[in-house]
Amino acid sequence: MAIKVGVDAGNNGTKIWSEGQDPFMIPAVYSEYLGVTVDRVDSEDIHPGELHTNFDATFSSPSLLFSNTRYIVGQKVLNDHLEAIEMERISNKATDDVPVITTLTGLTIDAIRRNPDQDKIKETYDLGVALPVGTINPEVAKEYEKRYEGTHTIEFHHPTGRNVRVEIEIEFCKCLPEGASAAWGVVYDENGKVTTRKIEDDNGVSKVSYEDKTLLHFDIGAGTTEIVVTQGVAFKPTLSEGRWYGTKQTILDIIKRWNKVYERKTIDSIVEFNEIFFDSEHPRHIDLKEFSVQFFRQLAKKFSADMINKIDEMKDDPYVFVYGGGAALIKQDLEVILKHKKRAKNVIFLNDPIFVNARGLLVYVSSPRFKQQKESKLGVSQDA
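Above: the chain's sequence. Below: its structure in token form.
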């Protein structure tokens, strides 16, 4: 039986949520392996719980421009101060190698954690992925799905010299619009049960379910922002739109200004910025947060205008959900603006905003609808 996984591949990081496991994120960077700089072999293998920060593997996949190549991926690139390859400022997730490399990294980590003592592992997966509203169409979605479906082989290299060969077979993959994918996790839980949430109105606090409600989603990402309308989980494309801005350009502006001021404490990538900004114990954390205040407040003002205009366009007080990595950066200022403009009614900032899309994709992949689509394409029930 295929393991169900939701994968939200963003400009900053790829979020992985596999059934029965805790979610985790792979920073969206990689580096070519150029060899070790010292003659040293560690005496212990990487612990399964630390794989996501110590990933060094050879990738063999027909979906990559350079197959059979050894890469350092994610946090280890930062920890080892390696040259980081990221997605371009104006990037296309559907064709870029970074989402594929980080997604295969996440699946390899999941497979090894499920089989920690084996040197040869084979796991089968069903995958839910997503693309921005501004770029997705049926043809692009199908091509993106094809990049994942099939067999990929990743050989993980422990520092002891032990290698673990992982064969990943992706039986079926479906691509949804970002934002619309999150609706599945808002309306249902992983078992397909309709969820309820508390709301407060003129009649006090009550519980409401959303399977038949008009939902307005604001998914604030790094490269794009998705403004999505769903009826329950049904995507409304004519009412939805994408914005070609997110937190990425703002962060790049902060980095540029910061590096001029602090020439001996430069920040070399967006991933490194996030590491400092969100780690309260990092020695540069306080300085960077103070340095960034005006930049993110400006972004919150820009975003609030789009948000308020869309809420007013909907007219009937839709249920509004705000999430995505960018939500964590501008939430405080955005709440102040919405309350001041009297547009905070029914606005919910979802918990764990970074993982909302990944969770929604996992719920979708676990749903009867996904199973029906898989059986229709493959001809037989793969779970029988």
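The chain has two domains: 3-180+359-378, 196-248+271-352.
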